[in-house]
Amino acid sequence: MARQIKLTADRRTATGSSAVRKLRRAGRLPAVVYGSAGARPIAIDRHAFERILGEHASENLVVDLDLEGEGTLKVLLKEVQHGPVFGEVLHALMPRIAQIIMNTTFRMFPDSDAAKGPKAGEKPKATPDQIALANLMRGIHF
Q: Domain check: are 80 and 31 in the same one?
């Protein structure tokens, strides 16, 4: 069984190049977690992140991200930006796994009630096929 990869992250409110430079000087790495709730800028420990990248052959990893105030989120490490000269890690993009599974499921079953969206005051219900696919996707590491 694959080992779970865990990272802790803090929300960051300051954005822009000067704030990011200060963050990098402090040993933190700017990153963005995005999903249906929108994009959230975060800061993670650079040393822990580089250690995780060094231990794995691929940069596309499923990570349990412990985000302050929100608990643990499953994210896919989708894109890592490296510096052009020394190859240092500059930035990371991480979509939420639940968002990937739901989008995949909706594309595969476009005529389902869940894909059509909620009716007035109703929550969408997933079909047994969608639930089976979502459970299958949880076991796959990209």
A: yes
Q: Based on the domain organization, do 86 and 107 belong to the same domain?
A: no
pLDDT per position as a tens digit, 109-133: 666 665 666 666 666 666 677 777 7
Instruction: Using alpha carbons, select from 122, 116, 73 the residue that is nearest to residue 97.
Output: 73
- Computed from CA positions of residues 58, 64, 68, 69, in that sequence, does the dihedral angle turn out positive or negative? positive
**24, 46: one domain:** yes
Domain co-membership, 78 together with 113: no
pLDDT in tens, 54-84: 888 777 788 888 988 888 888 888 888 999 9
pTM exceeding 0.85: no
